[in-house]
Specification:
Distance between the termini: 33 Å
Family: Belongs to the short-chain dehydrogenases/reductases (SDR) family.
Number of helices: 8
Protein name: SDR family NAD(P)-dependent oxidoreductase
CATH architecture: 3-Layer(aba) Sandwich
Strand content: 5-15%
Structural class: alpha/beta
Shape: globular
Oligomer: single chain
CATH topology: Rossmann fold
Number of strands: 8
Number of domains: 1
Bound molecules: NADP nicotinamide-adenine-dinucleotide phosphate
Order of helices and strands: EHEHEHEHEHHEHHEE
Strand order of the largest sheet: 3-2-1-4-5-6-7-8
Keywords: NADP, Oxidoreductase
Largest sheet: 8 strands, mixed
CATH superfamily: NAD(P)-binding Rossmann-like Domain
InterPro entries: NAD(P)-bd_dom_sf, Sc_DH/Rdtase_CS, SDR_fam
């Protein structure tokens, strides 16, 4: 039996990932910062709710203790993320940057630090970092790609950091499969439901990485078509 934790699982891609992994037989801890919405989401899918605000040391440590006490963890999916302000570049502030990096980047470090001890006790330890093609140098320069049409300095650079954190942690922890998934432009609240993919399509790469059973390459960046360029 594989036990999986998903951050930001109360809606959007995290919720659909939980639905698909429960269907695939995983025991899924659905992390959410809002207890009422998190419990409701877990009840709807047959998951287990755990309170998890990824920006809080105390909340992340509490979730790690809860999951350790219940038997441990095999797969960690760092999915929670924010877009940050949709301001013009000239209007962005340092506080905006701290907020976006705090949730999208610093929280990945916090989560990995808290959960690596549990993952090391697993026979199929896996981390999936939900990144974005918006953080791919290749995609944002390719006029054929949707990622080249947006200007969003903080969000894009935060996701470039997530992808590189994936590579660096994969080198640091060779005993864990650590890979990054780009969902692709998917209709969720994140983009006012303007994304062109369904949530099922948007979770293909995440589910693929989460169901490899602790084998396969590490330190890679994939989308639903396969290995993606960084
Ligand atoms: N949708 C896309 O087109 C797309 C494309 C590429 C990458 N992504 C990435 O995919 C991930 C999921 O995005 P989505 O489209 O599903 O967005 P979403 O519908 O807005 O969901 C984001 C989730 O993250 C949670 N979250 C935000 N801050 C949190 C915090 N401090 N602690 C715990 N949870 C927190 C939200 O919780 P609340 O409900 O409490 O706010 C929500 O559950 C993000 O990392 C995003 O960058 C999305």
């Amino acid at each position: 039996m594989t036990t999986t934790l998903i951050s930001g699982a109360n809606k959007g891609l995290g919720y659909e990932t939980a639905r698909r992994l429960i269907e695939a037989g995983h025991t899924v801890w659905m992390g959410a910062r809002d207890p009422a919405r998190g419990q409701q989401a877990a009840d709807a899918l047959g998951g287990r709710f755990v309170h998890l605000d990824v920006t809080s040391d105390a909340s992340v440590a509490g979730a790690a203790q809860t999951i350790a006490d219940a038997g441990g963890l095999d797969v960690l999916i760092n999915n929670a993320g924010i877009s940050g302000p949709h301001s013009q570049a000239a209007e962005l502030t340092a506080d905006d940057a701290l907020a976006v990096y705090g949730t999208n980047v610093v929280s990945v470090v916090r989560m990995i630090g808290a959960f690596v001890p549990l993952l090391r006790a697993s026979s199929n330890p896996t981390i999936v970092n939900v990144t974005s093609g918006m953080g791919s140098f290749a995609f944002v320069h390719d006029p054929e790609r949707i990622e080249s049409k947006f200007n969003s300095p903080l969000y894009t650079s935060s996701k470039a950091a997530v992808t590189m954190l994936t590579v660096q942690y994969a080198k640091a922890f060779p005993e864990i499969r650590i890979n990054a998934a780009d969902p692709g432009f998917t209709a969720t609240d994140f983009n006012g439901n303007t994304g062109t993919q369904t949530v099922k399509e948007g979770t293909d790469a995440i589910v693929e990485l989460a169901t490899r059973g602790g084998v396969g390459p590490t330190g890679t960046f994939i989308d639903r078509s396969g290995v993606a360029p960084f």
